[in-house]
Each structure stands twice: as C-alpha cells, then as structure tokens.
Design a protein that fits this description.
Elements: E1 2-7, H1 12-36, H2 42-72, E2 74-79, E3 83-89, E4 97-100, E5 104-111, E6 114-116, E7 121-123, E8 131-137, E9 140-148, H3 150-160
Antiparallel strand pairs: 1-2, 2-3, 3-4, 5-8, 6-7, 8-9
Helix pairs in contact: 1-2
C-alpha cells in the first residue's frame, strides 16, 4: 500500500487563541470551580462541582478538538489498486474512511477561493492554498485533502490517478 502524508496548514492565530483558551479553561476547572463548589456536606460539594464543570468541560473539549487538528493535524492517504483509505491523524472523534476505486467516477482538483456553502459564502483571498483534491464517489463529491497549493494538489491527483 502506498502512503501520502499531508500536514494540515497551521493557522497560527487560531493556535495561539485556542491555546490561551485551553489554559484559561484548565485554570477554571482545576482551581476556581472546586473553590466555588465547597459546601458543608461533601455530597452537595460533589454534585455542585459536577454541575458547574459540565459546561466548562464541553468548551474544553471543543477547544482541544480545534487546537489539536489545527496544530498537529495530518491527512494520511493509503491506497492501492482496490481502495483508498483516508485517515485524519490527531483529530478527535474521527475514524478512517475507506473508499473503493470501483465506485470512484473521477478525481478532480477544485479551487475554493470563493467557497459557497449552504448558509453563506466565504472568500479566501489572503492565501494561495485554496485547492482541494476531490472525487466523485457514488454521485457525491468528497473532499479528500483541503487547503493545498495548486502544484501540490496536482501532484496528489496524478499519484492517485
């Protein structure tokens, strides 16, 4: 099986912002909430702490999800003549996906400088890394690797074809 590893393009503003958020949330969960939940009885203290920590823990997991993928994320493609396996490394809550070559109609390169979604339109004018390698699989367009330069996207498309 042949392997292609592509490092996720790091957004340093997002990395710094989410790192600060993780530090603040850790400080709140470990120091402030236990002090705020101290009561006369231990059972009330434990229940109060759990009730207070749940929303902060949810935000902590969200920040960790964003921070891990943005800072250390990699997309790994393993492929042979029969199938393509897509692995998102260092992304929480994701599993590998397998696509069979017999069901792939075409492999394309798409430019998302102007990205239209269901709810809005986003303009990515400050970057040259706006290309994605996509393929048509069972009449659905699937983005395999995002935010590449045109040369890198063309290279990956040629390897997969």
């Amino acid at each position: 099986m042949t392997t292609i590893k592509v490092k996720n393009k790091t957004n340093w503003f997002l990395t710094i912002f989410s790192s600060i958020g993780l530090l603040i949330l850790t400080f709140i969960i470990v120091l402030i909430l236990p002090l705020a939940s101290i009561r006369e009885t231990y059972l009330l203290s434990a229940i109060s702490y759990i009730a207070l920590v749940i929303p902060f823990l949810a935000f902590y997991i969200l920040f960790m999800y964003i921070w891990l993928w943005n800072t250390f994320g990699k997309t790994i493609l393993k492929f042979d003549t029969e199938k393509i396996i897509l692995i998102k490394k260092n992304k929480l809550f994701s599993k590998s996906k397998t696509y069979y070559r017999a069901k792939i109609q075409s492999i394309n390169i798409e430019d998302f400088k102007i990205e239209k979604t269901q709810f809005n339109t986003r303009y990515h004018i400050f970057s040259n890394s706006t290309f994605s390698v996509t393929f048509i699989y069972n009449n659905l367009t699937i983005r395999i690797i995002d935010w590449l330069t045109h040369e890198k996207a063309k290279e990956i498309k040629d390897i997969l074809s």
